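<purpose> Linking amino acid order to shape
<body> The protein record starts here
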Amino acid sequence: MTSTTFIYALCEPGTRTVRYIGKADDVPRRLRKHLNESARQKNHLGNWLRAVLARGEKPALVILREVSYSLWKSAEKTYIRIARGLGKDLVNSTDGGEGITMTAEIRAKIGAAHLGRKLSTEVRAKMRIAQKGRTFSPEARAKMSATRLGRKSPMLGRCHSPAARAKMSSSKIGRRASPEHRARQSAAQLGGSCSQETRKKIAAALTGRKRPSEACENMRLAQLSRHAKVDN
């Protein structure tokens, strides 16, 4: 995290009348984001930016002050208060200093926008690189564990609901991985190894575990089916 950040203003082109005051670590990048998001923003800022862009113009950018990162909230509030006191018609929807708040409604909209969306191979590769070597705090681990409670594998004492298991089972009936898919799985696992701690946890979870007779019979039938297909 940087030690300083910037309080900036977006102004009417030509007159340079202040219309918006905000905070950004990278001000030019923040301006580009404002312009890109303006098409779908349904607020005063979005309406003003669309009007400026419709005239073939762009808002003027002015850096008001570079401040310590620990002081940006009070600085942003101060500049917004001063501008409003001078009669500036700001399009800020708040008094500033609060940053971005992810409300339940915003989270729901983001989730709906990403529903069914498939990531490209390039994006997946970038995500793997970004996550490599990343560690989570005990609090974050506890939250992730709580969200997955009841959805983990049976070997850990928690399993999917009967309805969920029925759906998963029906979706896999007659399904076989393609040679390309098997090759990708093999390449992904190549050279991978579990830590001693992970090995101990897996061993402890499997100790004394007995598969139901129905599961054993299903596995036996699946193996017979695979052998029959190979022989044919």
